[in-house]
TrEMBL record:
Entry annotated with the keyword Secreted: no
Keywords recorded for this protein, A-Z: Metal-binding
UniProt family annotation: Belongs to the DinB family.
Identification of the protein by name: DinB family protein
Signal peptide (from-to): none
Source superkingdom: Bacteria
Xref: Pfam families: DinB (PF05163)
Keyword ATP-binding: no
Length: 186
């Protein structure tokens, strides 16, 4: 299981690098322009991902194992709103995203079989309490990222920017050759 989550963490970093490089080709006004998406703009969508990832990582940091890799996230203020815009400028947002992605990869690399069997008790942003197993929560964490990155790539496409291949398949090694395949559309 851990190797699958390591692949998803690697994919998360890879896609964010591509997404932010594409976003950097647009002027600030275009990034902030309300395009009718759930979080308004490209910048709003990218900020939402940082906000949501921070919330989830802080929840994961409360697991009994208390992984040291999540210490930097424990020190962050907890976002109060899912539509918060903590980084109104792309450069600062991109730097924070890069930092967060490195934390995610380091933390995921430390998880073992016992860690993955843990149960997390947490309260959502509306104050409702939940008790859920870690594995499905990690699946949600990575799926949520892919979902909103898909929205961001659509918004970029509407702005005339094509980020190219976005499929996880591009990172899955060839079982026969042991090498990562060349990216292809599907």
């Amino acid at each position: 299981m851990q190797s699958h989550f390591a692949l998803l963490a690697s994919y998360n970093r890879w896609m964010n690098e591509r997404l932010y490089a594409a976003a950097a080709t647009l002027p600030a006004a275009e990034l902030a322009r309300d395009r009718g998406a759930f979080f308004g703009s490209i910048l709003g969508t990218l900020n939402h991902l940082v906000v949501a990832d921070t919330i989830w990582l802080q929840r994961f940091a409360a697991l009994p194992a208390r992984h040291a890799e999540l210490d930097p996230v424990r020190a962050l203020p907890t976002p109060e709103r899912l539509d918060a815009l903590p980084f109104p400028e792309l450069d600062a947002l991109a730097a924070h995203r890069h930092w967060l992605d490195a934390i995610i990869e380091r933390w995921i690399a430390t998880l073992d079989h016992d860690d993955l069997r843990q149960v997390l008790r947490y309260t959502n942003t509306r104050g409702n309490g939940f008790t859920r197993e870690l594995v499905p929560l990690l699946l949600h964490f990575f799926n949520h990222q892919a979902h909103h990155r898909g929205q961001a790539t659509t918004l970029l496409s509407q702005a005339g920017v094509d980020i190219g291949v976005t499929d996880l398949l591009a990172l899955i090694p060839d079982a026969n050759a042991g090498t990562t395949p060349a990216p292809h559309p599907h």
